[in-house]
Amino acid sequence: MSAPIKAPEGAPFARILATGSYRPSRVVTNDEICQTIDSSDEWIRERSGITERRWAGDDETVATMSAAAAEKALAAAGLASQDVDVIIVATCTHPYQTPSAASEVASMIGVPTAAAVDISAACAGFAYGLSMAQDMIRGGSAGHVLLIGAEKLSAFTDIYDRSTAFIFADGAGAVVVGPSSTPAISPVVWGGDGDQLQAINMTQNWVDFKANGFDIFPTISMNGQQVFRWAVSEMTRVCRESLDTAGVTVEDLDAFIPHQANNRITDALVRALELPDSVAVARDIITTGNTSAASIPLAMDRMLASGEIHQGGNALLVGFGAGLVFASEVVTLP
Ligand code: UT7
Q1: Ranges assigned E (strand) in the chain
Q2: What domain range includes position 325?
Q3: pLDDT attached to residue 62
Q4: Cβ pair 262, 290 in contact under 8 A
Q5: What ligand 1 atom has the least distance to the C-alpha of 322?
Q6: 208 and 274, same structural domain?
């Protein structure tokens, strides 16, 4: 009989230890957006809640923004980059097919030996990654995981497309996930609807881009109404299931941090879930736009920094987007 293989041994639980963020310096107003689409500041504010957003410059990439956010999260956690075992970057706008943004970040923050991987779950990417990070820590494959949601959506947005030009934006949010002696991240509720694959997609893939003589640069297209309806109806169910799975009710929540897709989606979820007024609701979209995988950690970091929410409180997170895919957890705030 062959020798038994050693089983992995993990920490009993995992928690978010700290957050960090990077917001590009260039502020893009609705009036600037309206220079290339037939729209208005009033329409954009009313239909999405967005008053301005940040777009990255040439020297601000998914990887550089990720590294900047990561360094702040590590400093806030009191950890060195060498303490990181795994780097996960959730993104759909890293411009290289390979190597990954996570590998670039590993090199940039001085921990080239860390395991590094990108995940592609669009606007649900951070919530997907959080569940994966918790499983790594509890499963014994990592001590500390650096989880980053980062996007440079401006690079893949058609500024002449009035259904997307005003909504997407850039930025990066990071968290450090580490061991915990008490539960601080609930079991994930996740899934998708692959039959709605076309609801958010690219106008072209890279192979067709080449085959078609490099004519139409691939950009993100979206059937906004279809996604809006799905988000409001399905995410209400998902949030309820997530609360049940975590064993808490809305009365136990201190914060609701949904993906910052549209302020009206957030409003509809707040109403459907009957959240008490005491629950702080993320509204980062107003000045940040929709930053896909970055939106939840960006919002969490800002709310913690402003004192709107506090360490030890419970927050309901829900990410949803292209796929269509979704993921939700209840977490203890760092
Ligand atoms: O992050 C990943 C997941 N993404 C989302 O969750 C996004 C979900 N969708 C949305 O947030 C919304 O659908 C949008 C903000 C994208 C669009 O808002 P909407 O209220 O769904 O607009 P609509 O497409 O239903 O259009 C309403 C009207 C139409 O005019 P009529 O037919 O009523 O005369 C459109 O032609 O607004 C018009 N319209 C615009 N007007 C000014 C559409 N886009 C624009 C625009 N500016 N940019």
Answers
A1: 13-22, 26-29, 52-55, 86-90, 115-119, 145-152, 170-180, 189-192, 200-202, 220-222, 255-258, 280-281, 314-321, 325-332
A2: 189-332
A3: 98
A4: yes
A5: 2
A6: yes
Q: For the domain that residue 207 is a member of, what is the CATH number?
A: 3.40.47.10
Take residue 55 and report the two structure tokens written for it: 């777009």
Q: Does 1 have pLDDT greater than 90?
A: no
282 shares a domain with 196:
yes
| Pair 119, 88: CB distance under 8 Å | yes
The CA distance from 300 to 284, in Å, is 9
Q: What is the structure's pLDDT at 42? A: 98
Which residues, including other chains, have CB under 8 Å from residue 99's CB and lie 6 or more apart?
none
Query: In this predicted model, what pLDDT tens digit does every residue of 295-331 receive, in sequence order?
Result: 999 999 999 999 999 999 999 999 999 999 999 999 9
Q: Whole-number mean pLDDT of the chain?
A: 97
Q: Which of 123, 228, 288 maximizes ligand 1 atoms within 8 Å of its Cβ, making it the mutation to test the pocket?
A: 228
Residues marked as catalytic = 123, 259, 290
159's tokens: 């500024």
Determine contact, residues 119/129, Cβ cutoff 8 Å. Answer: yes
Digit-coded pLDDT (tens) for 70-121? 999 999 999 999 999 999 999 999 999 999 999 999 999 999 999 999 999 9
Q: How far does CA 236 lie from the centroid of its chain?
A: 19
Residue position matching structure tokens 């539960």: 183
Question: From the CA atom positions of the chain, what is the Rg in Å?
Answer: 19
From the CA of 165, give the closest atom in ligand 1: 48
- Which pTM was predicted? 0.97
